[in-house]
Structures are given as structure tokens and as C-alpha cells.
Amino acid sequence: MKFSGADLINVLNDVEYLLISLRDIGNFYYRDVTPPDEMTQLAYAVETSRFLNKPEIDQRLEKIKKILLEPLISEVGTNGGAKLKKGLKKIACWEHPGD
Known about the structure:
Helix content: over 70%
Mean pLDDT: 88
Order of helices and strands: HHH
Number of strands: 0
Low-confidence stretches: none
Radius of gyration: 18 Å
Number of helices: 3
């Protein structure tokens, strides 16, 4: 399995964008607030949710997933690709509290 240099740069750019943005949001809201008050925590949560819910974020994550999956699927073939996707569906994801 091999990734092209361009694919790796794309993935790293998107990961860096996400990590740096989340770090900067945290720094903006928490840099000079010790301990953080409720308003700071609420503002941070709202801004983080706003950032993560932008369609652009979902698109970037889908692009990363596609880049990482393509070589795996081509290496293991159609049946192996189906098994891989099935295995990924078993990942425990967020559920509504109380579910």
C-alpha cells in the first residue's frame, strides 16, 4: 500500500487545519481565564460546535477518509473492501444521552 506525496500533503494539510483551528479556539476562550467561568465555557462550546458543524469540516474529513481507504480497498480487493467497511461500521460513535 502506497500513498502519493500529494495525497499525504492533502491529508496533513486538512489535519493541521483542524488541529490548529481547535487549538486556536481553545486559546482564544481560555488563555486568560483561570478558572473558566460558565459564560466562557458556554462561548467555547458554541464556537467549537459552530466550527465543527461547518459543511467544509465534514467535507475535509470525508476527503481524508477517501484518501486513506482507497489504497486499502484496492489492496484487499472488493470482498476485502466490503469487510473493511463493515468493520468500520462497528466503531462506537456518539449516541444521544440515555440511548
